Inverse folding.
RNA sequence: GCAGCCAGCCGGCUUGUCGCUGAUGCCGCAAGGUAGAAGAGGAAAGUCCGGGCAACACAGAGCAUCCUACUUCCUAACGGAAAGCUAUCUGCGAAGGUAGAGUAAUGUAGAAGAAAAUAACCGCCAAGUUUUCUCAACGAGUUCUUCGGAAACUAAUGAGAUUGCCUGGUAAGGGUGAGAAGGUGGGGUAAGAGCCCACCAGCCACAUGGUGACAUGUUGGGCUGUGCAUCUUAGGAGUUGUAAGGUCAUGUAUACCGGCAUUAUGAGGGUUGCUCGCCCCACGUCGGAGGGUGGACCGCUAGAGCCUAUUGGUGACAAUGGGUGUAGAUAAAUGGCAGGCACUGGACAACAAUGUUCAGAACAGAACCCGGCUUAUAGGCUGACUGUUUUA
């Protein structure tokens, strides 16, 4: 059993402008679990900076104040960090293919951290199930 | 004590654990790994002013446009502060709010009102003329007569009153209006009037005080309409903002730059909006090298820095000494979870100190950096001052 590190470094975050444009250009899978929606896209092993890259988006339309937007991003990021091996373990059987995903906040209100974590778990589980 | 007012300050602390950015050290050719200092605000916000910094532009003249506007003072600068001045409003008060260059010229000011500025509509006064009346004086004429008179009438004269017209004087009075030719009283006058005088308000001059705005005056001068706009005066204003701008990597169409050569004198471009003026010039050739994509580094945090003491100043602030190293992210870090402490409120127990338990804890997140302004903000602390109650 290898050591599991519940980290979330910069290489695991999606920064490339071109990849972001490809992700949102259309044709990629998406799945909602209110108050979240996930958009994901498969990459070849040569692309990307890590096995899984994520992006969290909270539109300004939902929260006018930066404080609340940041708070939501932190909740989602924390929830992914604690549950990312749901996805990483499943990905080992996929022959080195890589994944890009974006979490988009849909609600106009703040939610509790427990609820956000449950929804993230649900979304990750859904992606794993769709691999088979 | 309670209520208030002004100024300044704080706006959680801490333990464990899991994370994020990461100066720097170590390992490594490198990618990276590992240890790891430090890590949001008073407003970081709005992006409203001012400045630094950067790039580009810039011979010069005139006109236009825009901004500022009581005084002195602070500052790198400001449309910001400080201390004052004048007017006005609010509050019992401590205090707070609002406005503030000038008025020579031009324009404008609804309704109202006689009239809105070289004022005569009504009214008042005078002269002329006119209507009517009264009175006076004597004379004239006529009529009457008892021939003594003077009863009546007529026209004229003078005085007064009066009707209309006209000429002139007059701003004391007149419904209005934000404002009516400074106000009140007296003298004066044909009637009136700063025409004259006293007091009062303003203005100008002078004197005194103040750096000054201004203030004061048993001083002098009869000088006296209000608002707004244009305007006038004084000072100021190049444009774009760190996605500026620079370096490196990748690497291709002829937009760009420089040299040389050549043509033309009119179209275009630049110079702040306009005018003048000034500058540039299509094409060829040689050399440099660029569109787009998208990554790294610099810019990027030592700055008009922060803390503190003393001195000067009413104060904003300044000078000097000492101390200090204090965020630099890039789809954007500074957080999550579990405890403890402190704070506030409720409930319960208790004479009380206090204890138990349950809740609550604002506005808000750096994006080149400063100085301000504006707006949001639960709760709390400190100091000066004001009002009030009780007690002494």
């Amino acid at each position: 059993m290898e050591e599991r590190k519940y980290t979330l470094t910069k290489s695991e975050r999606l920064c490339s402008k071109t990849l972001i444009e490809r992700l949102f250009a259309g044709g990629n899978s998406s799945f909602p679990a209110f108050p979240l929606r996930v958009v994901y896209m498969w990459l070849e092993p040569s692309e990307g900076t890590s096995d899984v890259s994520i992006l969290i988006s909270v539109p300004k339309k939902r929260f006018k104040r930066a404080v609340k937007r940041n708070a939501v991003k932190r909740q989602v990021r924390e929830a992914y960090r604690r549950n990312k091996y749901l996805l990483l373990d499943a990905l080992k059987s996929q022959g080195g293919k890589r994944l890009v995903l974006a979490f988009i906040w849909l609600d106009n209100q703040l939610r509790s951290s427990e609820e956000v974590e449950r929804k993230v778990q649900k979304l990750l589980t859904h992606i794993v199930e769709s691999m088979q």
In short: The longest strand of chain A covers residues 36-43. Chain A has four helices and four strands.
